[in-house]
Amino acid sequence: MPLSFADPDAFSRPVHVVAADALADWQAGLPVSSRTWLAATGFEAGLGEVRLLPGASGGIAAAVVGWGTAKARARTRFALGKAVAALPEGDWHLAGPLGADDLAEAALGYLLSGYAFTRYRSGRGSKARLKLPEGCDRVRLLAMAEAEFLTRDLINTPASDMGPAELESALLSLAERFGARTAVIRGTALLAQNLPMIHAVGRASDREPRLLDMRWGNAGPRLTLVGKGVCFDTGGLDIKPSSGMLLMKKDMGGAATVMGLARMIMALGLPVRLRVLVPAVENAISGNAMRPGDILVSRKGLTVEVNNTDAEGRLILADALALADEEPADLIVSMATLTGAARVAVGPDLAPFYTDDEALAAALQAAARPACDPLWRMPLWPAYEAMIEPGIADLDNAPSGGFAGSITAALFLRRFVDNPRYVHFDIYGHTPADAPGRSKGGVGQGARALLTALPQMLAL
Protein backbone atom coordinates (compact mmCIF):
# COMPACT_ATOMS: atom_id res chain seq x y z
CA MET A 1 0.00 0.00 0.00
CA PRO A 2 1.32 3.52 -0.72
CA LEU A 3 2.83 5.39 2.20
CA SER A 4 3.06 9.14 2.53
CA PHE A 5 2.72 12.13 4.79
CA ALA A 6 0.45 15.10 4.13
CA ASP A 7 1.57 17.81 1.74
CA PRO A 8 3.54 20.25 3.90
CA ASP A 9 1.87 23.22 2.21
CA ALA A 10 -1.70 21.96 2.59
CA PHE A 11 -4.09 23.34 5.19
CA SER A 12 -4.29 21.02 8.19
CA ARG A 13 -6.22 20.83 11.42
CA PRO A 14 -4.37 20.59 14.73
CA VAL A 15 -4.12 17.51 16.88
CA HIS A 16 -3.66 18.85 20.40
CA VAL A 17 -1.58 16.45 22.47
CA VAL A 18 -2.39 16.85 26.18
CA ALA A 19 -0.85 15.00 29.11
CA ALA A 20 -3.14 13.93 31.93
CA ASP A 21 -1.45 16.19 34.49
CA ALA A 22 -1.69 19.19 32.15
CA LEU A 23 -5.34 18.75 31.17
CA ALA A 24 -6.84 21.30 33.57
CA ASP A 25 -4.42 24.05 32.58
CA TRP A 26 -4.88 23.33 28.88
CA GLN A 27 -8.68 23.33 29.14
CA ALA A 28 -8.61 26.68 30.89
CA GLY A 29 -7.58 28.30 27.62
CA LEU A 30 -10.47 26.80 25.63
CA PRO A 31 -13.84 28.37 24.84
CA VAL A 32 -16.57 27.39 27.26
CA SER A 33 -18.29 25.32 24.57
CA SER A 34 -15.16 23.18 24.03
CA ARG A 35 -14.63 22.69 27.77
CA THR A 36 -18.24 21.67 28.16
CA TRP A 37 -17.99 19.26 25.23
CA LEU A 38 -14.86 17.55 26.58
CA ALA A 39 -16.37 17.24 30.05
CA ALA A 40 -19.58 15.78 28.62
CA THR A 41 -17.63 13.13 26.70
CA GLY A 42 -15.57 12.16 29.75
CA PHE A 43 -12.19 13.09 28.28
CA GLU A 44 -9.40 12.55 30.82
CA ALA A 45 -6.35 12.68 28.50
CA GLY A 46 -5.61 8.99 28.89
CA LEU A 47 -2.87 7.76 26.58
CA GLY A 48 -4.24 7.52 23.05
CA GLU A 49 -7.70 8.80 24.04
CA VAL A 50 -9.19 10.82 21.15
CA ARG A 51 -11.85 13.49 20.96
CA LEU A 52 -12.90 15.67 18.01
CA LEU A 53 -13.62 19.32 18.71
CA PRO A 54 -16.50 20.86 16.73
CA GLY A 55 -16.12 24.23 15.09
CA ALA A 56 -18.59 27.10 15.09
CA SER A 57 -20.11 25.95 11.81
CA GLY A 58 -20.59 22.39 13.00
CA GLY A 59 -17.57 20.87 11.27
CA ILE A 60 -14.47 19.41 12.88
CA ALA A 61 -12.13 22.16 14.03
CA ALA A 62 -9.46 20.08 15.76
CA ALA A 63 -8.71 16.87 17.58
CA VAL A 64 -7.44 16.23 21.08
CA VAL A 65 -5.32 13.19 21.89
CA GLY A 66 -4.45 12.16 25.41
CA TRP A 67 -0.74 11.88 26.23
CA GLY A 68 -1.51 10.04 29.46
CA THR A 69 1.01 9.72 32.25
CA ALA A 70 4.74 9.08 32.09
CA LYS A 71 4.09 5.57 33.41
CA ALA A 72 1.54 4.86 30.67
CA ARG A 73 3.89 6.19 27.99
CA ALA A 74 6.67 3.94 29.22
CA ARG A 75 4.39 0.93 28.84
CA THR A 76 3.03 1.58 25.34
CA ARG A 77 4.73 2.32 22.04
CA PHE A 78 3.06 4.15 19.15
CA ALA A 79 -0.13 5.13 21.03
CA LEU A 80 -0.04 8.66 19.64
CA GLY A 81 0.64 7.47 16.10
CA LYS A 82 -2.28 5.04 16.26
CA ALA A 83 -4.59 7.79 17.51
CA VAL A 84 -3.65 10.07 14.63
CA ALA A 85 -4.07 7.28 12.08
CA ALA A 86 -7.60 6.69 13.38
CA LEU A 87 -8.71 10.31 12.80
CA PRO A 88 -11.21 11.16 10.04
CA GLU A 89 -9.97 11.75 6.52
CA GLY A 90 -8.06 14.96 6.10
CA ASP A 91 -4.73 16.61 6.84
CA TRP A 92 -3.59 16.98 10.44
CA HIS A 93 -0.60 18.31 12.32
CA LEU A 94 0.60 17.66 15.87
CA ALA A 95 0.35 20.49 18.40
CA GLY A 96 1.75 19.98 21.86
CA PRO A 97 4.86 19.95 24.05
CA LEU A 98 6.53 16.95 22.41
CA GLY A 99 10.27 16.32 22.20
CA ALA A 100 12.10 15.23 19.06
CA ASP A 101 12.04 11.53 20.02
CA ASP A 102 8.30 11.67 20.77
CA LEU A 103 7.59 13.34 17.43
CA ALA A 104 9.63 10.73 15.54
CA GLU A 105 7.83 7.91 17.35
CA ALA A 106 4.47 9.49 16.60
CA ALA A 107 5.31 9.84 12.90
CA LEU A 108 6.57 6.26 12.64
CA GLY A 109 3.61 4.96 14.63
CA TYR A 110 1.24 6.82 12.31
CA LEU A 111 2.78 5.08 9.29
CA LEU A 112 2.87 1.64 10.90
CA SER A 113 -0.73 1.96 12.10
CA GLY A 114 -1.80 2.31 8.47
CA TYR A 115 -0.81 -1.29 7.68
CA ALA A 116 -3.49 -3.68 6.44
CA PHE A 117 -2.96 -7.16 4.99
CA THR A 118 -5.21 -7.11 1.94
CA ARG A 119 -4.11 -10.08 -0.15
CA TYR A 120 -7.20 -12.16 0.61
CA ARG A 121 -9.85 -9.59 1.51
CA SER A 122 -10.44 -5.92 1.02
CA GLY A 123 -9.20 -3.50 3.60
CA ARG A 124 -7.76 -0.07 3.93
CA GLY A 125 -5.15 1.77 5.85
CA SER A 126 -5.55 5.18 7.44
CA LYS A 127 -7.38 7.96 5.60
CA ALA A 128 -5.94 10.60 7.90
CA ARG A 129 -2.83 12.34 6.58
CA LEU A 130 -0.25 13.59 9.04
CA LYS A 131 2.04 16.51 8.29
CA LEU A 132 5.57 15.37 8.99
CA PRO A 133 6.63 16.88 12.32
CA GLU A 134 9.51 19.36 12.06
CA GLY A 135 12.91 17.74 12.40
CA CYS A 136 11.80 14.26 11.35
CA ASP A 137 13.57 12.47 8.49
CA ARG A 138 10.88 11.73 5.88
CA VAL A 139 13.04 9.43 3.75
CA ARG A 140 14.19 7.36 6.70
CA LEU A 141 10.74 7.03 8.25
CA LEU A 142 9.20 5.94 4.95
CA ALA A 143 12.05 3.45 4.39
CA MET A 144 11.43 1.96 7.84
CA ALA A 145 7.69 1.65 7.31
CA GLU A 146 7.92 0.24 3.77
CA ALA A 147 10.44 -2.35 4.95
CA GLU A 148 8.21 -3.29 7.87
CA PHE A 149 5.23 -3.71 5.53
CA LEU A 150 7.30 -6.04 3.35
CA THR A 151 8.23 -8.12 6.40
CA ARG A 152 4.64 -8.27 7.62
CA ASP A 153 3.26 -9.22 4.22
CA LEU A 154 5.77 -12.06 3.88
CA ILE A 155 5.03 -13.46 7.35
CA ASN A 156 1.26 -13.07 7.05
CA THR A 157 1.08 -14.95 3.75
CA PRO A 158 0.14 -18.59 4.40
CA ALA A 159 2.49 -21.38 3.38
CA SER A 160 0.19 -22.33 0.50
CA ASP A 161 1.32 -19.10 -1.16
CA MET A 162 4.69 -18.60 0.55
CA GLY A 163 6.85 -21.67 0.07
CA PRO A 164 10.55 -21.73 -0.75
CA ALA A 165 9.88 -20.80 -4.40
CA GLU A 166 7.69 -17.84 -3.47
CA LEU A 167 10.21 -16.64 -0.89
CA GLU A 168 12.83 -16.85 -3.63
CA SER A 169 10.62 -14.76 -5.92
CA ALA A 170 10.19 -12.15 -3.20
CA LEU A 171 13.95 -11.87 -2.74
CA LEU A 172 14.54 -11.68 -6.49
CA SER A 173 11.97 -8.88 -6.76
CA LEU A 174 13.66 -6.99 -3.95
CA ALA A 175 17.03 -7.45 -5.64
CA GLU A 176 15.71 -6.26 -8.99
CA ARG A 177 14.24 -3.12 -7.47
CA PHE A 178 17.56 -2.03 -6.00
CA GLY A 179 19.97 -3.47 -8.55
CA ALA A 180 21.34 -6.23 -6.32
CA ARG A 181 22.95 -9.43 -7.58
CA THR A 182 21.50 -12.85 -6.77
CA ALA A 183 22.33 -16.53 -6.91
CA VAL A 184 20.15 -19.50 -5.95
CA ILE A 185 21.14 -23.11 -5.20
CA ARG A 186 18.23 -25.55 -5.33
CA GLY A 187 17.48 -29.19 -4.58
CA THR A 188 20.27 -31.74 -4.90
CA ALA A 189 22.63 -28.98 -6.03
CA LEU A 190 22.79 -28.13 -2.32
CA LEU A 191 24.69 -31.38 -1.81
CA ALA A 192 27.04 -30.65 -4.68
CA GLN A 193 27.68 -27.19 -3.21
CA ASN A 194 28.32 -28.62 0.29
CA LEU A 195 25.16 -27.38 2.01
CA PRO A 196 24.06 -30.78 3.32
CA MET A 197 22.03 -29.74 6.36
CA ILE A 198 19.85 -27.36 4.35
CA HIS A 199 19.14 -30.26 2.02
CA ALA A 200 18.51 -32.71 4.87
CA VAL A 201 15.87 -30.48 6.45
CA GLY A 202 14.07 -29.69 3.19
CA ARG A 203 14.37 -32.92 1.22
CA ALA A 204 11.12 -34.47 2.53
CA SER A 205 9.01 -31.75 0.90
CA ASP A 206 8.06 -31.74 -2.77
CA ARG A 207 8.94 -28.02 -2.65
CA GLU A 208 12.67 -27.96 -3.26
CA PRO A 209 14.91 -26.57 -0.52
CA ARG A 210 17.22 -23.80 -1.63
CA LEU A 211 19.78 -21.23 -0.55
CA LEU A 212 19.11 -17.65 -1.62
CA ASP A 213 22.11 -15.35 -1.92
CA MET A 214 21.83 -11.59 -2.60
CA ARG A 215 24.65 -9.04 -2.79
CA TRP A 216 24.45 -5.25 -3.02
CA GLY A 217 27.01 -2.48 -2.85
CA ASN A 218 30.59 -2.32 -4.04
CA ALA A 219 32.34 -0.35 -1.30
CA GLY A 220 32.34 0.04 2.45
CA PRO A 221 32.25 -2.36 5.38
CA ARG A 222 31.02 -5.89 4.73
CA LEU A 223 27.68 -6.75 6.36
CA THR A 224 26.18 -10.24 6.05
CA LEU A 225 22.60 -10.99 7.10
CA VAL A 226 21.40 -14.59 7.49
CA GLY A 227 17.68 -15.29 7.94
CA LYS A 228 15.91 -18.52 8.76
CA GLY A 229 13.49 -19.33 5.94
CA VAL A 230 11.44 -22.31 7.15
CA CYS A 231 8.29 -21.59 5.16
CA PHE A 232 6.30 -24.16 7.12
CA ASP A 233 7.33 -26.38 10.00
CA THR A 234 5.43 -29.59 10.69
CA GLY A 235 8.13 -30.59 13.16
CA GLY A 236 9.21 -33.38 10.83
CA LEU A 237 8.96 -36.94 12.17
CA ASP A 238 8.91 -35.43 15.67
CA ILE A 239 5.64 -33.96 14.52
CA LYS A 240 4.09 -30.98 16.24
CA PRO A 241 0.53 -31.19 17.57
CA SER A 242 -1.96 -29.40 15.36
CA SER A 243 -2.07 -26.47 17.79
CA GLY A 244 1.69 -26.12 17.41
CA MET A 245 1.40 -25.77 13.63
CA LEU A 246 -1.15 -22.96 13.60
CA LEU A 247 1.48 -20.22 13.48
CA MET A 248 4.14 -22.09 11.54
CA LYS A 249 3.64 -19.99 8.44
CA LYS A 250 5.66 -17.44 10.44
CA ASP A 251 8.68 -19.73 10.79
CA MET A 252 10.31 -17.80 7.95
CA GLY A 253 10.10 -14.63 10.04
CA GLY A 254 13.88 -14.39 10.28
CA ALA A 255 14.16 -14.37 6.49
CA ALA A 256 11.35 -11.81 6.23
CA THR A 257 13.03 -9.58 8.78
CA VAL A 258 16.49 -9.61 7.19
CA MET A 259 14.82 -8.86 3.85
CA GLY A 260 13.11 -5.89 5.47
CA LEU A 261 16.41 -4.71 6.94
CA ALA A 262 18.13 -5.16 3.58
CA ARG A 263 15.39 -3.07 1.97
CA MET A 264 16.02 -0.24 4.43
CA ILE A 265 19.76 -0.37 3.85
CA MET A 266 19.40 -0.29 0.07
CA ALA A 267 16.65 2.34 0.03
CA LEU A 268 18.77 4.64 2.19
CA GLY A 269 21.89 3.94 0.15
CA LEU A 270 24.06 3.07 3.14
CA PRO A 271 27.76 2.73 2.20
CA VAL A 272 28.11 -0.99 2.89
CA ARG A 273 28.76 -4.18 0.99
CA LEU A 274 25.66 -6.13 1.87
CA ARG A 275 25.13 -9.87 1.56
CA VAL A 276 21.86 -11.62 2.44
CA LEU A 277 21.70 -15.41 2.83
CA VAL A 278 18.36 -17.17 3.25
CA PRO A 279 18.14 -20.95 3.53
CA ALA A 280 14.55 -21.58 2.39
CA VAL A 281 12.92 -24.92 3.16
CA GLU A 282 9.73 -26.63 4.23
CA ASN A 283 10.15 -29.08 7.12
CA ALA A 284 7.78 -31.80 5.93
CA ILE A 285 7.23 -35.53 6.46
CA SER A 286 7.78 -38.31 3.93
CA GLY A 287 9.73 -41.52 3.54
CA ASN A 288 13.01 -39.70 3.02
CA ALA A 289 12.63 -37.27 5.94
CA MET A 290 15.55 -36.97 8.36
CA ARG A 291 15.04 -39.15 11.40
CA PRO A 292 15.63 -38.70 15.12
CA GLY A 293 19.05 -40.12 15.82
CA ASP A 294 20.46 -39.36 12.38
CA ILE A 295 23.88 -37.78 12.30
CA LEU A 296 24.45 -35.03 9.75
CA VAL A 297 27.78 -33.71 8.52
CA SER A 298 27.62 -29.94 8.22
CA ARG A 299 29.31 -27.66 5.72
CA LYS A 300 31.85 -26.76 8.39
CA GLY A 301 32.64 -30.45 8.93
CA LEU A 302 31.11 -30.62 12.41
CA THR A 303 28.81 -33.58 12.92
CA VAL A 304 25.34 -33.04 14.40
CA GLU A 305 23.14 -35.64 16.08
CA VAL A 306 19.48 -34.96 15.27
CA ASN A 307 17.75 -35.60 18.57
CA ASN A 308 14.64 -33.70 17.50
CA THR A 309 13.60 -33.07 13.91
CA ASP A 310 11.61 -30.07 15.17
CA ALA A 311 14.87 -28.26 15.98
CA GLU A 312 15.53 -27.82 12.29
CA GLY A 313 16.04 -24.07 12.07
CA ARG A 314 19.48 -24.17 13.64
CA LEU A 315 20.52 -26.85 11.14
CA ILE A 316 19.81 -24.76 8.05
CA LEU A 317 21.23 -21.65 9.70
CA ALA A 318 24.41 -23.52 10.59
CA ASP A 319 25.24 -24.28 6.96
CA ALA A 320 24.34 -20.73 5.88
CA LEU A 321 26.43 -19.22 8.67
CA ALA A 322 29.38 -21.43 7.80
CA LEU A 323 29.13 -20.19 4.23
CA ALA A 324 28.90 -16.58 5.41
CA ASP A 325 31.93 -17.06 7.63
CA GLU A 326 34.10 -18.16 4.73
CA GLU A 327 34.31 -14.54 3.56
CA PRO A 328 35.74 -11.65 5.58
CA ALA A 329 32.92 -9.64 7.16
CA ASP A 330 32.83 -6.66 9.48
CA LEU A 331 29.56 -7.91 10.93
CA ILE A 332 27.48 -11.09 10.61
CA VAL A 333 23.89 -11.11 11.87
CA SER A 334 21.51 -14.06 12.02
CA MET A 335 17.79 -13.68 12.66
CA ALA A 336 15.43 -16.55 13.31
CA THR A 337 12.13 -17.52 14.87
CA LEU A 338 14.19 -20.17 16.58
CA THR A 339 12.95 -21.23 20.01
CA GLY A 340 9.86 -21.25 22.16
CA ALA A 341 12.24 -20.84 25.09
CA ALA A 342 12.91 -17.26 24.02
CA ARG A 343 9.20 -16.49 24.19
CA VAL A 344 8.94 -17.99 27.66
CA ALA A 345 11.93 -15.89 28.72
CA VAL A 346 10.99 -12.49 27.32
CA GLY A 347 7.51 -12.75 25.79
CA PRO A 348 6.42 -11.65 22.30
CA ASP A 349 7.48 -7.97 22.38
CA LEU A 350 11.16 -8.19 23.22
CA ALA A 351 13.71 -9.47 20.72
CA PRO A 352 16.52 -11.28 22.56
CA PHE A 353 19.97 -11.12 21.02
CA TYR A 354 23.32 -12.77 21.66
CA THR A 355 26.85 -11.59 21.03
CA ASP A 356 30.30 -11.89 22.61
CA ASP A 357 31.25 -8.41 21.42
CA GLU A 358 30.61 -5.82 24.12
CA ALA A 359 30.79 -2.87 21.72
CA LEU A 360 28.20 -4.43 19.40
CA ALA A 361 25.93 -5.16 22.35
CA ALA A 362 26.22 -1.62 23.67
CA ALA A 363 25.45 -0.13 20.26
CA LEU A 364 22.33 -2.27 19.90
CA GLN A 365 21.07 -1.52 23.38
CA ALA A 366 21.57 2.21 22.85
CA ALA A 367 19.70 2.08 19.52
CA ALA A 368 16.67 0.15 20.74
CA ARG A 369 14.79 3.02 22.37
CA PRO A 370 15.17 5.69 19.66
CA ALA A 371 14.27 3.06 17.06
CA CYS A 372 11.15 2.05 19.05
CA ASP A 373 12.39 -1.50 18.66
CA PRO A 374 12.94 -3.10 22.09
CA LEU A 375 15.76 -5.61 22.54
CA TRP A 376 17.16 -7.65 25.40
CA ARG A 377 20.67 -9.07 25.57
CA MET A 378 20.93 -12.73 26.58
CA PRO A 379 24.08 -14.55 27.75
CA LEU A 380 26.21 -16.94 25.74
CA TRP A 381 26.85 -18.85 28.97
CA PRO A 382 30.00 -21.00 28.60
CA ALA A 383 28.96 -23.51 31.24
CA TYR A 384 26.10 -24.63 28.97
CA GLU A 385 28.43 -25.63 26.13
CA ALA A 386 28.44 -29.20 27.47
CA MET A 387 24.68 -29.39 26.96
CA ILE A 388 25.09 -29.26 23.17
CA GLU A 389 27.79 -31.99 23.07
CA PRO A 390 26.07 -35.39 22.89
CA GLY A 391 29.18 -37.56 22.85
CA ILE A 392 28.29 -39.56 19.75
CA ALA A 393 28.73 -36.48 17.51
CA ASP A 394 30.26 -33.06 17.80
CA LEU A 395 26.93 -31.35 18.46
CA ASP A 396 23.38 -32.07 19.59
CA ASN A 397 20.60 -30.11 17.86
CA ALA A 398 18.15 -30.55 20.76
CA PRO A 399 19.66 -31.04 24.22
CA SER A 400 17.47 -32.97 26.65
CA GLY A 401 16.21 -31.46 29.87
CA GLY A 402 14.50 -28.39 28.46
CA PHE A 403 16.73 -25.89 30.24
CA ALA A 404 18.09 -22.70 28.60
CA GLY A 405 16.73 -23.60 25.17
CA SER A 406 17.35 -20.23 23.55
CA ILE A 407 20.86 -20.01 25.00
CA THR A 408 21.86 -23.50 23.87
CA ALA A 409 20.51 -22.77 20.38
CA ALA A 410 22.64 -19.62 20.22
CA LEU A 411 25.68 -21.55 21.47
CA PHE A 412 25.04 -24.13 18.75
CA LEU A 413 25.01 -21.47 16.04
CA ARG A 414 28.14 -19.81 17.41
CA ARG A 415 30.07 -23.04 16.70
CA PHE A 416 29.68 -22.31 12.98
CA VAL A 417 30.98 -18.72 13.06
CA ASP A 418 34.63 -17.98 13.82
CA ASN A 419 34.21 -14.26 13.17
CA PRO A 420 33.93 -12.60 16.63
CA ARG A 421 31.74 -9.82 15.22
CA TYR A 422 28.60 -11.93 15.20
CA VAL A 423 25.12 -11.19 16.57
CA HIS A 424 22.22 -13.65 16.72
CA PHE A 425 18.56 -12.68 17.21
CA ASP A 426 15.94 -15.19 18.43
CA ILE A 427 12.78 -13.32 17.42
CA TYR A 428 9.07 -14.16 17.54
CA GLY A 429 7.93 -12.34 14.40
CA HIS A 430 4.30 -12.20 15.47
CA THR A 431 2.01 -9.88 17.42
CA PRO A 432 -0.56 -12.02 19.27
CA ALA A 433 -3.14 -9.22 19.61
CA ASP A 434 -3.70 -5.81 18.05
CA ALA A 435 -1.43 -3.16 19.56
CA PRO A 436 -0.61 0.42 18.57
CA GLY A 437 1.39 0.33 15.35
CA ARG A 438 1.31 -3.46 15.31
CA SER A 439 -1.82 -5.18 14.08
CA LYS A 440 -2.27 -8.84 15.02
CA GLY A 441 -0.06 -11.00 12.84
CA GLY A 442 3.42 -10.82 11.40
CA VAL A 443 5.82 -8.18 12.64
CA GLY A 444 9.48 -7.30 12.24
CA GLN A 445 11.71 -7.25 15.31
CA GLY A 446 15.25 -5.97 15.67
CA ALA A 447 15.60 -4.55 12.16
CA ARG A 448 15.10 -0.87 13.07
CA ALA A 449 17.44 -1.18 16.04
CA LEU A 450 20.07 -2.74 13.81
CA LEU A 451 19.65 -0.01 11.21
CA THR A 452 20.02 2.65 13.89
CA ALA A 453 23.07 0.95 15.39
CA LEU A 454 24.88 0.24 12.10
CA PRO A 455 26.79 3.57 11.94
CA GLN A 456 28.39 2.75 15.29
CA MET A 457 28.70 -0.99 14.67
CA LEU A 458 30.40 -0.49 11.31
CA ALA A 459 31.94 2.96 11.87
CA LEU A 460 30.05 4.36 8.88
UniProtKB/TrEMBL annotation:
InterPro entries named in the record: Leucine_aapep/pepB (IPR011356), Macro_dom-like (IPR043472), Peptidase_M17_C (IPR000819), Peptidase_M17_N_1 (IPR048816)
Annotated GO MF terms: manganese ion binding; metalloaminopeptidase activity
Keywords for this protein: Aminopeptidase, Hydrolase, Manganese, Protease
Residue ranges occupied by any Cytosol aminopeptidase domain in the UniProt entry: 308-315
GO-annotated biological processes: proteolysis
GO cellular component: cytoplasm
Protein family (similarity comment): Belongs to the peptidase M17 family.
The name this protein goes by in its record: Leucyl aminopeptidase
Source organism per UniProt: Cereibacter ovatus
